[in-house]
Design a protein that fits this description.
Radius of gyration: 13 Å
Oligomer: single chain
Structural class: alpha/beta
Distance between the termini: 15 Å
Helix content: 40-55%
Largest sheet: 4 strands, parallel
């Protein structure tokens, strides 16, 4: 268990859905991680100013972004905040498998993303 708060920014064109899904993840993993969803960004051009304002530890890109767009967003994040942890959901996951699959995918990959390597 970690006592460190993890500040999260999501990049999702559906901010209410992002808030709902991340809220589920935060609740489900609260015994392992303290995640604070500080902002959602709807447009790629708003990523850098949001990161500069919020200084998050973690950035998620949602599944509506193509792999190329997700790569661009991650590049902006790493350029803006060296060492930021990033996570991109597979393109189409929400549409193809629904919100439960998104939550499960995040929760499956979150421990390896947030736990330091031994």
């Amino acid at each position: 268990m970690t006592d460190k708060r993890v500040k999260l920014v999501t990049v999702n064109t559906a901010p209410e859905r992002a808030k709902r899904l991340i809220g589920r993840v935060v609740e489900d993993v609260k015994d392992q991680f303290t995640i604070v969803h500080v902002a959602n960004v709807e447009r790629i051009e708003d990523v850098r100013p949001t990161l500069e304002r919020e200084h998050p530890d973690l950035l998620f890109t949602a599944s509506m972004w193509t792999p190329e767009q997700a790569q661009e967003i991650v590049g902006i994040a790493r350029d803006t905040i060296p060492g930021i942890k990033t996570f991109s959901l597979p393109f189409g996951l929400q549409v193809e498998k629904g919100p439960d699959a998104v939550v499960e995918y995040i929760e499956t990959h979150l421990p390896s993303l947030l736990n330091p390597e031994p």
